[in-house]
Specification:
Blueprint: H1 3-14, H2 18-39, E1 41-44, E2 48-55, E3 58-61, E4 68-71, E5 74-81, H3 83-103, H4 107-110
Antiparallel strand pairs: 1-2, 2-5, 3-4
Helix pairs in contact: 1-2
């Protein structure tokens, strides 16, 4: 999903033009960035917490040359989801696990009764045209 999709969705729901909605969405994003730059923390109840943290300098390796390089300290934004978001993600995990369990059932359970037992899971029902020459 892109910012344009978000604007379209909100615009449709609240009845403002997309141009008006885009301005509101952009101002919201700008405010988030400004708050993080100044206060280094933004808590949005039931959504999550954005926090600016300083990552320590570290040694890394250039993947092209293999040379060791020093990566300087830098500021990064972290996000910790709120309770509602955590619950939604757990529900997604449960749904994915259920789909995986259904997909992992043996072929025999999904096959019709007339499916020949002599054909294993990897066997083919295709016929060799050479076998049926007149």
């Amino acid at each position: 999903m892109t910012k344009k999709d978000i604007v379209r969705t909100i615009s449709d729901e609240i009845g403002l033009t997309q141009l008006q909605t885009k301005e509101i969405v952009q101002k919201t994003f700008d405010a988030i960035v400004e708050i993080l730059a100044n206060d280094r923390r933004l808590e949005l109840r039931n959504f999550g917490v954005f926090e600016v943290k300083q990552r320590a300098p570290r040694k890394a390796r250039n993947p092209r040359t293999g040379d060791k390089v020093l990566v300087p300290a830098k500021f990064v934004v972290t996000f910790k989801p709120g309770k509602k978001m955590e619950q939604k993600m757990r529900e997604l995990e449960r749904q994915a696990a259920a789909r995986a369990a259904r997909a992992a059932k043996p072929l025999k359970e999904h096959a019709p009764e007339s499916f020949p037992e002599s054909l294993g899971a990897g066997a083919s029902t295709a016929h060799d045209p050479a076998e049926h020459t007149p």
